[in-house]
Amino acid sequence: xxxxxxxxxxxxxEGRAANLPCNHSTISGNEYxxxxxxxxxxxxxxxxxxxxxxxxxxxxxxxxxxxxKSSTLILPHATLRDTAVYYCISYFVIxxxxxxTGTRLTIIP
Amino acid sequence: xxxxxxxxxxxxxxKRETATLKCYPxxxxxxxxxxxQGPGQDPQFLISFYExxxxxxxxxxxxxxxxxxxxxxxxxxxxxxxLGDSALYFCASSLLxxxxxxxxxxxxxxx
Lengths: 109, 111
Description:
Chain A is an all-beta fold.
């Protein structure tokens, strides 16, 4: 698995867009970028993933740079329920997920 | 939609006892993963199974064993429990090559 680096913590005002960065400069061509989040002591929740193109679903958008060395997860209108630890993981889909330290996102009222 | 089901949700055992955790994957998923998350730590991969065969192994103690059964459910057996085994244990499942989904976890407390 390629190593990813994320800021340890971030704050975002409720109702604003939360932009969570992730660096994965050693990602290989067949590794996807996956995002999960873990709300206190609950099971990690899948958010979104992508390979090369930007992706959007009902939860978030994923912007991947053209060189694939970094990405940004965007929560368009953050709510208090989005407070969680967000994990950016790059991996080859037939292998296991390796969790790094993630970003602790706090949504401020 | 059906999710990954884990049981029991909470378990309290004494040192040196044995514990068994069960995991029922999402229907038609062929791969099961087990993770351990200690207090204040990130989830750590223990072991995985694909089509009932062990496919990968992480930092799983020799006191732990696991298997996947013919109906694809999996069990994690932990023997000679130690205080340090107290943790949240997650099971996850996927259809090989696709997104991995996690259960809500089983809390194990060793006293």
